[in-house]
Design goal:
Elements: H1 11-24, H2 32-51, H3 59-70, H4 84-91, H5 99-109, H6 113-116
Helix pairs in contact: 1-2
Length: 125
């Protein structure tokens, strides 16, 4: 096993790191192989984040995703967002989230506030 670990600077470096990760997969934590796997996985993660950055999700999509995850209905949002009409306006992107709504969505549904404060993207009808 090699002792030299270098930054990933090219697609070729990335492919080599991925191939080595595949051979090290399942190595026990705390072993030389496990430590090398951890370091390579961290380097690969940094490379992928730099090469393929992802925008944070749209606030309305984040709310809908959390509703689906937790099996919630629009009625379940009444204590968080407000009336059925207000919920419909928010989920249909006709009304922006207020600071109070953002705080409650964050506290009660665990949606990160930094996602909720982003402007919602209006979808084409």
């Amino acid at each position: 096993m090699k002792d030299d670990v270098k930054p990933i600077r090219s697609e070729a470096d990335y492919e080599k790191a991925m191939a080595e990760i595949e051979t090290l997969w399942g190595s026990a934590s705390g072993t030389v192989e496990g430590d090398r796997l951890d370091v390579l996985a961290t380097l690969v993660d940094a490379w992928e984040a730099a090469q393929y950055p992802m925008d944070p999700p749209d606030p309305v999509e984040a709310i809908k995703f959390r509703m689906e995850q937790q099996g919630l209905t629009r009625k379940d949002l009444e204590g968080i967002i407000g009336t059925r009409a207000r919920i419909a306006e928010v989920l249909d992107r006709k009304r922006a989230l207020s600071i109070a709504m953002i705080r409650r969505l964050h506290a009660q549904l665990g949606i990160p506030a930094e996602i909720l404060i982003r402007p919602s993207v209006k979808r084409a009808a």
